[in-house]
Amino acid sequence: MGVFDLSLRHKIPLWGSMLIVASALAISTALMFRAYDDLRQDLFISTESLSHTLATTLFPLLLHDDLWRAFEIVQAPFHAELKKAPFEAESIFVVNDAMQILVASDPLRLPTLSDLGSIDPEYRHLAAELRKTPLTTTHAFDFPDARHYYIATPIAEAGRQIGILVISHDQAAFLQRFLDLTVRSTLIGLLVVAVILPINWYWGRRMAEPLVDLARGMDALMQGKPALLLAAENYPYRDELGQLFAVYREAAAALNEKALLEQEVLSSERLAAVGRLAAGIAHEVNNPLGGMLMALDNLKQRGPLEPTTVKTIALMERGLQQVAETIGALLVEAHVPIRPLTGHDFDDVHTLIGPQADKKQVALDWQVEPPEKIDLPAGLVRQILINLLLNAVQAADAGGRVGMVASWTDKALMLTVANTGAPLPETVRKHLFEPFIAGREGGHGLGLWVTYQTVTQLGGQIVADCLEGETRFVVTLPLENSTA
Amino acid sequence: MHTKTILEGCNFGRRKTLGLLAALVASYIGNVSTAWGGVKPLRVGLTPAFVHDEYGMLEEWRRYLEAKLKRQVEFVMRDSYRETMDLLRLDKLDFAWICDYPFVHLKDQVRLLAVPLNQGRPFYRSYLIVRANDNARKGMRDLKGAVFAYADPYSNTGYLSPRYQVRQLGEDPAHFFRKTFFTWSHRKAIEAVATGLAQGAAVDSYVWDTLSRLRPDITGKTRIIDKSAEYGFPPFVAHHAVAEEDYRAMQGALLGMRDELIGRRLLDFLNIDGFVVGDKRMYDDVAKMMHAFGEY
Q1: What ipTM did this prediction achieve?
Q2: Which end of chain B is more exposed for a tag (fewer CB within 10 A), N or C?
Q3: A4 CB near a chain B CB, below 8 Å?
Q4: Any CB–CB contact under 8 A between A67 and chain B?
Q5: Closest CA to B104 of B157, B153, B151, B154
Q6: Separation between Cα atoms, residue B206 and residue B271, nearest integer Å
Q7: What is the pLDDT, as a whole number, of residue B24?
Q8: Which residues of B touch A65 (CB under 8 A)?
């Protein structure tokens, strides 16, 4: 894996750091070059002005051969209080045309009347340079291998030159000064970098974190399992990243909805198929069943029978009756005449359920705004309510509560039946409305299936959910559909 | 001046009170000097014959003399003997402390007033000095071809005497040294050798001794390789035109210094032991040397 494949989490801070360090280096290098030039320039300028002052003062003294006063003048810049001057010369001396030293600030090293060239090779070089360079004004000598800078000024007035003033600066001292400056500015630079780098690191991480999260989210999205993005939730800005997050949220929501829809379609198709099958079987069984029951009845009418036969017939009748009941339940299609729903129907249901609830010591919370008259088949709605309420009472624990809310608008009737008690397990919830799936022991599992079929027939919807320790069934029945 | 002298030995609390006293005395002196207003002040010329760095002490000496003479005294300081001599010639000074050589020069214009006592005697010498680490040179002969510092062209110990010594060696002082220059004071001549500007110098023994007490760091860089014969110490002289009573008064003031506490303190500052009347004949050797150079 190359550096370029690194996570943005590392790449952004890394790149930022490299940029900062590179900038710091570039700027300090440029500044250092500049500082070096400036320092050199300052050295030459300050020395030049000193040279002019000294040369002017020295002229009459040398003219009158006043060696002592000339010595006092060349020594003056070395006095203790001037030691702190930015560029302290190493030595100041005057030579004549024959390159003999007339006076020097350090006579022990540069004795009066000694030959400049005889002192050391560097001075020999300087003497040669001075000889071949006619001076009209201050001139700086910086020849290779020299350990000093030499600034020479002619001591002349009105065309008469009586000597050359030379101020020498130790290059090592100059470089030391430059080095001090460099070290100081480098330290400051490091300090700045030390402050900026962590900020950059923090900022880079902050930038990368949402991107990394988004990438993770996209990955999950591709696998069809949209993830909740923490970074996205905490990202309040509306920049490009914010827009990306918004798009992601939309995509995730759409995907969720689609998955839900697909599941629903699948489930309702399955239920419809099961319904059709069940209804078909029921029809086929119902007709011979009616015939058999009729035949048994006829047999009973035909006169006295042996007690054994009577017993057998009764047995068969009960068995067939049970089959008929089951089939009847499967045959949801109602043949009862349609009577519109009124408030009395709700009262009836209340009356029917009341004793059951009392028996289980379950409180019944009845919130019904009794309708005048609703264009829905009363029998079917009663059946739906009774089914749901009986289930609820049975599901609620002793001392629990069952709630019934009925409300209606111009467009729909909404019935909500809720109960406290153990929530429905996930496995049960998935196949809740399929036949012969019992949510609890003892039921044949047709109750909810029948309810579902009925609701579907009426063009309504039934939804179950568990919320805050409550299991709720919400039935919505459209009013216009029922009239159609 | 009394208070100031006492001041030196006092603690801070008393110092404050005495400071007040000093102010009172000063105002008294001020009043006195206005009383002297009509009389011409006495002008005293001072030369670099001694080490004068502490102008405060000189001022104290001047006031001392004023109080003694009951007359205004002016100190006139010049950097070379020549200038002081000129002032004497031009009758601009009443008294002067000059070198013995100028004294002999000006013998017609001035009379001997008093001679300071150097280490108890009214004599001094010329020291021939080289740098302390210059072990090769042991006498004047070894300085041939050197860079040599003279103090002042009118100094005996710093000019006349060394040139005379060179002459004694049978050499011409004009060419004996490779280069000579004047520093215009003995102290600076010592500094010229100390810094290495000159390889040798001849200086006043009194100045060297005094400086070795005040600034041993400077004299420590020099070494005495030869001492001349004794000469009469640079004298205090009076212009011929000075009235006899002024002459007596000034002489009395100088001679009396050693008998007084303040006077002794001032003498200590000047690093001399007192003043004596002296004798013209003390300076005959100078005249002899001058004669050798055809100057007398």
Answers
A1: 0.79
A2: C
A3: no
A4: yes
A5: B154
A6: 8
A7: 47
A8: 181
